[in-house]
Design brief:
The chain is about 45% helix and about 20% strand. It has about 350 residues and is α+β, with helices and mostly antiparallel strands. The protein has 2 domains: about 90 residues, Methyltransferase, Methionine Synthase (B12-binding Domains), Chain A, domain 1 (Orthogonal Bundle), CATH 1.10.1240.30; about 220 residues, Phosphatase 2c, domain 1. A 5-stranded antiparallel beta sheet has the order 1-10-9-6-7. Strand 2 and strand 3 form a beta hairpin.
């Protein structure tokens, strides 16, 4: 801290105490910028202020600068030392948080690009999908594959965990499914292969649930298997009823040698298969989880809409029921409807 700074500050303070004009305040504000540029801390400014007052009140006016005033300035100096440290730490944390948020934003954009999937178009079949992350990174993943002639493959996965590790797991799932290559592949075989990949490469504390289905347009046959995933729903249009598509299976990555059993159902006109993650079924509504009957009632309410409009309507209804509070978990909802 230079003598020149102390001298200039004392002069500015003396002029203000004598004249108290707007110009004096303006000069003081400009001078404060110089202090910032020279990294003068708040407690150092108070120390300069105290010394300047002692000089101003020395001599005949010394009795006006009392011990109480000195003690008060000493207290303020000590206070500002801690305040300055805390403020510096706070600014550092904010800066680090901003950098982290920016990196997560970039990572989320990369994830969207890497995991991008296209809903296949197939005569006699309509598909709708919505997947909303609870945070920037999505721990849910929807995979589509079609050969434009006969088969459509649909996978819905949910990582037990969130953030960047979950996103990396999903990249692994996508690469595994891409390697398998054909939408005609058996769902049980697809899950068996993915299980071996996940078990070998993912940490022991991370698991993936997954539902994989294959639709055969020629035979109207939907074959499915599940690895510890939320049961899908089958809506039978003629009977106007819902059936849970139960399928036993362990989460991916728990054990190395697992064979997932697959099942088959025949779809008739306007039948729907609804696949979701536990972000739907475990959505909090008035301190409780959303009941399965509430979900089926919502689906029935909007069943005349297209699958995509239906999926979006269900999300809007859930948002309303949850009073528009932030999602506690990633939410995914996929609708497959036989049109002919």
């Amino acid at each position: 801290m230079t003598k020149e700074i102390k001298k200039q500050y004392g002069m500015l303070l003396g002029q203000y105490l004598k004249n108290q004009t707007e110009r004096n305040l303006y000069l003081g504000q400009n001078f404060s910028r110089r202090l910032v540029q020279k990294d003068i801390t708040p407690e150092e400014v108070i120390s300069i202020h105290k010394e300047s007052l002692e000089l101003i009140y020395s001599g005949n006016d010394e009795e006006n600068f009392t011990d109480d005033m000195r003690n008060a300035l000493d207290f303020l100096t000590e206070f500002m030392i801690q305040y300055g440290l805390a403020l510096g730490e706070h600014k550092t944390l904010l800066k680090n948080q901003e950098e982290m948020d920016h990196e997560l934003e970039l990572a989320a954009n990369v994830q969207k690009t890497m995991l991008k999937t296209t809903i296949p178009e197939m005569n006699g079949l309509s598909i709708g999908s919505i997947s909303i992350p609870a945070r920037k990174m999505n721990g849910d993943y929807v995979y589509f594959q079609g050969d434009e002639k006969r088969f459509v493959g649909i996978g819905v996965a949910d990582v037990v965990g969130k953030g960047i590790p979950a996103a990396l797991c999903m990249s692994m799932v996508k690469n595994g499914l891409d390697t398998l290559g054909q939408p005609s592949i058996s769902p049980s075989y697809a899950l068996d292969v993915l299980n071996r990949i996940v078990e070998k490469t993912v940490d022991d504390n991370m698991f993936i649930s997954m539902f994989y289905g294959r639709y055969d347009v020629v035979q109207s046959n939907f074959t499915y298997a599940s690895a510890g995933h939320e049961p899908a729903l089958l809506y039978k249009a003629k009977e106007k009823k819902f059936i849970e598509l139960e399928s036993e299976g362990l989460l991916l990555g728990v054990l190395p040698d697992v064979h997932n059993v697959e099942k088959n159902i025949i779809l008739e006109k306007d039948d729907m298969v609804i696949i979701m993650t536990d972000g739907v079924t475990e959505c909090r509504v008035e301190n409780r989880f959303l009941e399965k009957s509430e979900i089926t009632n919502l689906i029935f309410k909007h069943k005349e809409k297209s699958p995509q409009a239906l999926a979006e309507a269900i999300f809007a209804e859930i948002e309303k029921l949850a009073q528009f509070k932030p999602l506690a978990d990633d939410l995914t909802f996929v609708v497959i409807k036989k049109e002919e």
